[in-house]
Design a protein that fits this description.
Helix 2 crosses helix 3. A hairpin with a 5-residue loop joins strand 5 and strand 6. This protein is of the alpha+beta class. The protein has a single domain, classed as Nuclear Transport Factor 2, Chain: A (Roll). The chain has 3 helices and 6 strands, in the order ααββαββββ. The longest helix has 14 residues.
Length: 117
């Protein structure tokens, strides 16, 4: 799969049950993956999965819709929307990811649009 296809699967992982989430993460990311967004900075699959679990608890039924993905030279830039269970847009953002030589994600950085108008 390409980085673009893997990013779409990665977005789905955020809504998966813990066991399934860890399995997919182990296929998609390096064991020492780093992830940062305005709320967290973490390293490793276990910590990443736990953070995704916290996301699920804070926004039950919340899920991501990938709007656009661009990829080149082992780098991926994706625009997304965070949707509520009823499909209402809760937030928009952009994520940057880097792939290692084997095509696994080794770094993610998430950026959220401000909800202030």
């Amino acid at each position: 799969m390409t980085g673009k296809e893997n990013f779409k699967l990665y977005a789905e992982v955020w809504s998966m049950p813990a066991k399934e989430r860890v399995w997919h993460l182990s296929e998609l990311v390096t064991s020492d993956v780093t992830y940062a967004d305005p709320n967290a900075s973490i390293t490793g699959i276990e910590s990443f999965s736990a953070y995704m679990g916290e996301f699920q608890n804070s926004i039950p039924g919340g899920h991501f819709k990938v709007i656009n993905v661009c990829e080149h030279h082992s780098q991926v830039l994706a625009q997304w929307e965070l949707l509520a269970q009823n499909e209402k847009v809760l937030q928009r953002g952009t994520s940057y990811a880097r792939l290692d030589k084997d095509g696994k994600f080794c770094l993610f950085a998430g950026f959220f649009e401000s909800n202030e108008h």
